[in-house]
Prior knowledge:
Radius of gyration: 27 Å
Distance between the termini: 92 Å
Strand content: over 45%
Helix content: under 10%
Largest sheet: 10 strands, antiparallel
Number of strands: 31
Structural class: mainly beta
Shape: flat
Amino acid sequence: MKQVLFLFCSLISILNAQNYFPYKLGDAAVYLVDSYELFGSSHSYYIEYYEFNDSLIIIGKKYIKNYDVYYSYYDSLKNILYSTNQFSGVVDSIDFNCTPGEQVYTILQPYCPLTVQPLTTETILNQNTTVFTAKYTGANYDETLKYADNFGICFLYTMSNYGPGMYSCHDYTLKQIRLNGTITPDTLLNIGLGESLNSTVYNFTTGSHITLKSTILPSVHCGNGYKAEVILVDKDGNEKHTATLEPYNNNHRMFRYYPPNNITTLDTIKYRFKGNDLGLNHYVVYTPAEGYATKVIQNITSIEHDDFYNLENYSLSQNYPNPFNPETSISYNIADAGNVKLIVYNQLGQLVATLVNEYKISGRHSVKFNAENLPSGIYYYTIATNNFTDTKKMVLIK
């Protein structure tokens, strides 16, 4: 009877246990990386793939290769993940039985103990699951590491501080997995239709255009394959013009269609967005999935092209006056409403002023910079939004 009860309890324990490293040879994980470096004024997105395609045998245990030079073995009975760097041969471990407040070490940052947080339930790849979180906060380095039941590492955040105003951040977010040959979800790409198609054609004589917008995720999801396909038809459905458009001005959510001069009121713009999904399936994705979105041209005006150009694009203008003493103006355009940060730093990369750090509506904005308390020299100002970064130089002469 005792033996039966022991076996029953052992079975219940196994059924209720989490699996924080579900991968076997042939499996894969795809992450979206958000990288931001203030000192370099760069903000970028990219995709990283991790193929579990190699293994090492260490003391009779098969360690699966993951994350470049690291190999891992998960003991599901003990609920411990063992990892090693193939060059050092040192075996590290994360004990998922640790309670909140306890510290764990990882092979990624062996000298930075991460403090275990309370278990949470989060939605990972559209599935509610248990998430184990550990965090480290230091003077020059921060890290947050999350393991999800049945998904492995679902999120990794690192921040390195190199001095005043100089730091780099990286977010790794799990976007797709392949387990036992099944890929979840099918695609990474989610283009989506943006705002209503602008229905006014601007100034035929200087290059009229119609703006098409999408709600695409960061452009890395489709690489260089992201395009808009347009067909212009008359009110009777007869085709008048076709075009395949590239993203305008490196803005992967905006396209400009320049229609022919014979466009008239009640013509219809038919359009769709196309992307080459960079996930594990490499699908070609269309939005709408079938057919085209449509917009009937209601009126034609002659509003100046340059005015529209200024409102529809991101830009950072050169400060005026330049050189200056002690005050100058900095203007910038925002194509889409959102958070905007505008900072000034010196030649050493030290932050000297934060001019803007708030939500801004789309349009043209201007801000004053007063350098009365700063020495003469060269300064740099950087603007950063969700879709745009730029840096310019200015000179203070006293």
